[in-house]
Amino acid sequence: xxxxxxxxxxxxxxxxxxxxxxxxxxxxxxxxxxxxxxxxxxxxxxxxxxxxxxxxxxxxxxxxxxxxxxxxxxxxxxxxxxxxxxxxxxxxxxxxxxxxxxxxxxxxxxxxxxxxxxxxxxxxxxxxxxxxxxxxxxxxxxxxxxxxxxxxxxxxxxxxxxxxxxxxxxxxxxxxxxxxxxxxxxxxxxxxxxxxxxxxxxxxxxxxxxxxxxxxxxxxxxxxxxxxxxxxxxxxxxxxxxxxxxxxxxxxxxxxxxxxxxxxxxxxxxxxxxxxxxxxxxxxxxxxxxxxxxxxxxxxxxxxxxxxxxxxxxxxxxxxxxxxxxxxxxxxxxxxxxxxxxxxxxxxxxxxxxxxxxxxxxxxxxxxxxxxxxxxxxxxxxxxxxxxxxxxxxxxxxxxxxxxxxxxxxxxxxxxxxxxxxxxxxxxxxxxxxxxxxxxxxxxxxxxxxxxxxxxxxxxxxxxxxxxxxxxxxxxxxxx
Length: 480
Ligand SMILES: Nc1nc2c(ncn2[C@@H]2O[C@H](COP(=O)(O)OP(=O)(O)OP(=O)(O)O)[C@@H](O)[C@H]2O)c(=O)[nH]1
What we know:
By secondary structure, the protein is an alpha/beta fold. It has 16 helices and 16 strands.
C-alpha cells in the first residue's frame, strides 16, 4: 500500500488494482487529480485504508482481477464504503462484472479501453470544484445510478427505454425525455421507443414529428442519424411554429439529442432526447454524463440483441436436435421423449393413449430397384401423407430407416385403428413419383394401466411383425 502526498485541500483517492505496473501507470496518468492518492493491491488493503484514512473517491480497476476469485471480496468492499463514491474501471468485454458488483451497492463506472484523457476527464468530475454548479456530482451520480438500475432491471428493450426515459426526467429542469431507436434495416427505420413527461399536458412526439417539416432537423433525430450531439436552444428558431407551439405547451424551451452510439463502426443505435424547461448552457460534466447515459443505454440495447441472438440460436439448435433431417418430422429421440411424457400424463388424468407403428413394405426392394434418392423421396412422401391424417395434438416421429410412429393422445385402441386404417389407405392410394405404388404395414396399441414405454413398444412391434406376416398393407391390433 502506498500513497502520494501533494495538497491537503484537494480530493483524496484510493486506487485498487492487483498489478504493480497498473498502479504505477495510474499514479503517473491521473495522480495530479488528487491531493493525495492511496493505492491498494487487494480488497483487504483497501478496507484497511478506508478504516484509517479520509478518502473521497474509490477507484476500482477490474483489469487483472479474477471475477470468480475476487468478486466476493470486491463486492464486500463496495458494500462497506459508507457513502464513498466508487468508480469502477472495466474493459467493455468484462462488463458482466458490473451487474454483479452493482448488487453490492450503487457505483459509477467507465467502460474501457480508455485513454488517459478520458480517465482524467471523468476523475475531474469528482473534484470538489467541479460539483459546485450544474447538477452537481451527487446529482449526477444519483442519476447514473438510477439509469444503471433501469438497464439492469429492464426485461426487454421496450422496458429499458421506458425506464431510461423515466430516469432522465429526474434530471433537474427536464420536462420530457424520449428514446429513439434506429433499426439495422436498410434503409434504417427510426422509432420512438418510449417517452416520459412531467407536464400535465401530454404530447405524442412521434405524431408531431411525422407532420413536422422540421423532422430531420429535430435534435433527437439528428443525433440518431448522424451520431452527433444536437441542441436546439430556442424553439422559435425552428422552422416549425406548430411543433414549437406543441412543445411550448409542455413547457419545453430547449431540446437536446444525445446519440446512442454503436460499439465500433456502424450507424448509431438511436438517441436520447431531453427537453428542458428553460434554455441553459450544459456544463462539460452534464455533457459527459449525458454521453455516459447514452453509452449505458447502448450497452443495454446490445445486451438484449446478444440475448435475442442467443435465444434464436438455441431455438434453432433445439429444433435441429429433435427433427429428422430427411423428412422434417420429429426424430426418434423426440418421439421417445414425447411417448414417456404422454404416458405419464395419460396415467395422471386417466386418459386413453395410443401408439401407432408404421413400417414401409419391401422398402429394401424399392431402394434396390429405383435407387436410394427415390427411396428418400418416398420416405418424405410417406411422412407427409401420414402427417396429413393426424390431429395437431398427435406426434409423428421417424423411429428408424423406413419406420415411423404416431403418439396419439386422448385416443383409445378403436379410434387408433380407424386412424391407422386411414393412413394405410391414403398411402396405398398415392402414386409415388419415380417408383411403383407403395404400401405400409401398421400396428396399434393402447397403453395399459402401469405399462412402461418399453413394454408398449415391444407389444406394438410384435403386432407389426404379425401385420408383415399377414401379408403386409394391413393394420394389426396389439392385444393386452
Ligand atoms: N432410401 C433410404 N433407405 C433407407 C434409409 N434408411 C434405411 N433405409 C433402407 O430401408 C430398408 C429397410 O428395410 P427393412 O425394413 O429391413 O425391410 P423391408 O425391405 O422394408 O421389408 P419389410 O419391412 O419386411 O416389408 C433397408 O434397405 C435400409 O437400407 C434412408 O434414409 N433412405
